[in-house]
Design brief:
2 domains, 4 helices, about 55% helix
Length: about 160
């Protein structure tokens, strides 16, 4: 067995196995409990697992009579939750209460946003009124600035003469 970090004797040297020895299995650092026969069995198991995984894709084991009879039990596999955007709009009978409520919320929000864009809601009217008020104030301020600018230029022109 190869000596690693801890030495048996203070005068002993550390020995390391080469890569070739490790691959060939002839290195001295292989544990005594791990025999070549066990290695072969381990390799066979890996190969058989790979073969079985291919077969499992094709065949699945069924418990009891499940392999003989096709059963559609809705309680066996149930999706955890379905997002309202992924749900069919026409299929409302199969939806749970929460899913129906979420779908109704989305429809109501879309309807409200449509009305908002058209300016038919109270909030949209308030916003439009505020917007017109601000536009008027800005126009008045722009006129004042132009008048002040014109008055300033006239003063300069008079001062030059």
């Amino acid at each position: 067995m190869a000596k690693g970090k801890f030495k048996g004797k203070p005068t002993g040297q550390r020995t390391f196995s080469s890569k070739e020895e490790l691959e060939a299995g002839t290195s001295a650092d292989r544990p005594k409990t791990f025999s070549k026969k066990k290695q072969e069995v381990f390799n066979r198991r890996e190969e058989s697992i790979e073969e079985e995984s291919d077969e499992e894709v094709e065949k699945t084991k069924h418990k009891g009579t499940a392999g003989l009879i096709d059963i559609d039990n809705p309680n066996l596999v149930k999706p955890k939750s379905i997002k309202a955007k992924d749900v069919d709009v026409d299929r409302t009978a199969d939806l749970s209460r929460r899913e129906r409520e979420e779908l109704e919320k989305q429809r109501a929000r879309a309807h409200y946003m449509r009305l908002q864009e058209e300016g038919k809601t109270e909030q949209a009217r308030k916003d439009l009124d505020r917007l017109t008020l601000i536009r008027r104030q800005r126009e008045e301020a722009a006129k004042k600035r132009e008048e002040e600018k014109a008055a300033k230029e006239e003063r300069k022109a008079e001062a030059r003469k």
